[in-house]
Amino acid sequence: MGRTRKSCCCIFLVILVIAALIAGGIAYAVLKSKKNSNASANIADESKYAEALKVSLQFLDIQKAGKLVNNKVSWRGNSALKDGSVVDVDLSKGLYDAGDHMKFGFPMAFTATILAWTILEYGESMKKVDQYKPATDSLKWITDYLVNAHPKDNMLYVQVGNADTDHKCWDRPETMSDKRPVSQINKTSPGSDVTAETAAALAAASLVFKKSSDDTSYSEELLKHSKQLFSFADKYRGLYSASLPKVKKYYNSTGYGDELLWAGAWLYHATGEKTYLNFVTGKAADDYADMDNPTWFSWDNKLPGAQVLLARSSFFDEEAGGNSVIGNYKQTAEAVMCNVLPNSPKTTSSKTDSGLIWVSEWNSLQQPVAHAFLANLYGDYMKKSNNKKLDCDGETFSRDDLRDFAISQANYVLGKNPEKMSYLVGMDGFGDKFPQFVHHRGASIPADEKPSCSEGFKWLESDEPNPNEATGALVGGPYLNETYVDARNNVKQGEPTTYSCALAIALFSSLTTTHDVDKSLS
Ligand SMILES: *[C@@H]1O[C@H](CO)[C@@H](O)[C@H](O)[C@H]1NC(C)=O
Ligand SMILES: *[C@@H]1O[C@H](CO)[C@@H](O)[C@H](O)[C@H]1NC(C)=O
Ligand SMILES: *[C@@H]1O[C@H](CO)[C@@H](O)[C@H](O)[C@H]1NC(C)=O
Ligand SMILES: *[C@@H]1O[C@H](CO)[C@@H](O)[C@H](O)[C@H]1NC(C)=O
């Protein structure tokens, strides 16, 4: 008995030990896989981001003005064909800004800059999912417009349409009948912000078309305009909202120093010329760079973008990398990262309970999407340059922490949120619905109707969901309390913009595949 009991006990002990080892092993494996689960974004998630990229690019097609080429949107047709004709310039192309029919040059140029940046960094990922051509086509639709908007050295058309009268209409772009005045800036009424943003867009796009086309003449033309616009912006300084006070109500620029640095950074990347490096590291840096102070990237504030783009030079460009001011930009880009990383000692309080960066009630998704893109891109620079650590006030973070943050914001947008609502129209994503009442004229009016300016308001007020899907529209987004009211007249939450769409394209491109960024953009 005793013997048996003893051996029984012994066997029991052995089993216990083995069980403990197995349990420990499993727990270890689970913990390990948990730790890596987000960073190594599984295949299923990557294909979600690829789908989100395809969907979001379609919104740029919906926003196209002019004589459409290979139009794939059944409810869209030619429109605004005579834009610019009052001044004998062809301003028919370009993109409508949002749910309205305005062409606002300031945010439109920003849209182009972001799209070009995305193609430069993540073009290979776009190619893998057949989105490279749609992306470059949409970019060219804007840059064709921007080139035409710059008919003389020190003059730039920065708006088509009168926002006050345009907003009194609810009609389709194809049948709009109100006057389409154009607004310019020039030597006596300058606008360094919009001019420099346009210069940034054309410099970035010149790199895209240098790579993507055998014919380099278009790229050279863009670069020529970019250089000229930069010197116009630099030489005749001023806010465009001072020269054209009517823009204050819509896209009031709060400064032009950020755009000058951003354009200088892009021109340095596009040309490699010392002049531009000297510009961004010289007096303009003292005046405008706001070193070590993390701010929010948006259509108005380009500083975080300029900081990350110049940090790129610090990582990969031997000549610029040794410059101490470029080092300061990199340090400031790090502060931008430490501001958004959820476990950083410096983490911002501007976020919702579930961790979405939240800065503004209008267009609330703009900043989380923009910063998720910047964070993932910065992480990719770290990876490529073998920089393993990011220091935030004594605590270290890795490239994977940046990617996890980007994924958390992207997943929120795609439905992992308390509303279980995907904020990207046309895709349920991780949620179970997407908005049906997007504030968008063209989407809200049946395509066979031809309402006049005022006749269309019945569709704004209708209780029926939009008859046309504004596929790829990223709506404004949730309130701070993470609720969303899906109503057509809820402009704050429900109006999609082209620049937020470009930022979403940037974020989804960066998550679509794990691809190493190139050391050089040219
Ligand atoms: C310069 O631009 C301002 C603002 O758009 C405009 O009022 C003025 O007529 C322009 N000047 C010239 C010479 O065209
Ligand atoms: C526009 O920006 C300027 C410069 O920052 C600011 O002084 C002004 O209050 C702003 N106006 C509006 C209407 O937001
Ligand atoms: C990582 O994934 C886990 C499990 O899916 C999730 O609970 C967590 O919120 C994710 N973290 C981030 C930063 O996305
Ligand atoms: C959420 O916030 C919005 C905007 O501040 C407010 O109108 C709404 O009542 C809030 N909803 C809840 C459930 O607290």
From TrEMBL:
Domain of life: Eukaryota
MF terms in GO: cellulase activity
Domain Glycoside hydrolase family: 49-506
A family per Pfam: Glyco_hydro_9
Enzyme kind, highest EC tier: hydrolase
Catalytic activity field: Endohydrolysis of (1->4)-beta-D-glucosidic linkages in cellulose, lichenin and cereal beta-D-glucans
The entry's keywords: Carbohydrate metabolism, Cellulose degradation, Glycosidase, Hydrolase, Polysaccharide degradation, Signal
Database matches in SUPFAM superfamilies: Six-hairpin glycosidases
Signal peptide residues on this chain, from the entry's feature table: 1-27
GO BP: cellulose catabolic process
Classification via PROSITE patterns: GH9_2
Keyword Plastid among UniProt keywords: no
Active site (record annotation): H439
InterPro entries, alphabetized: 6-hairpin_glycosidase_sf, 6hp_glycosidase-like_sf, Glyco_hydro_9, Glyco_hydro_9_His_AS
EC assignment: 3.2.1.4
Family per record: Belongs to the glycosyl hydrolase 9 (cellulase E) family.
Protein name: Endoglucanase
Lineage, uppermost ranks: Eukaryota, Viridiplantae, Streptophyta, Embryophyta, Tracheophyta
